[in-house]
């Protein structure tokens, strides 16, 4: 369950919503990077927790 969820959640969930939000809000490069970093950190934290528990 970790494998499919990992790929499905990391690829589309990370690319689609971000791109859509940036295109709609027209955030600057700095904001884009900061937002991506925050979301990435969240994803990494969740994955790390799941891996450790597994």
From TrEMBL:
Comp. bias (Polar residues): 1-13
Region (Disordered): 1-27
Protein known as: Uncharacterized protein
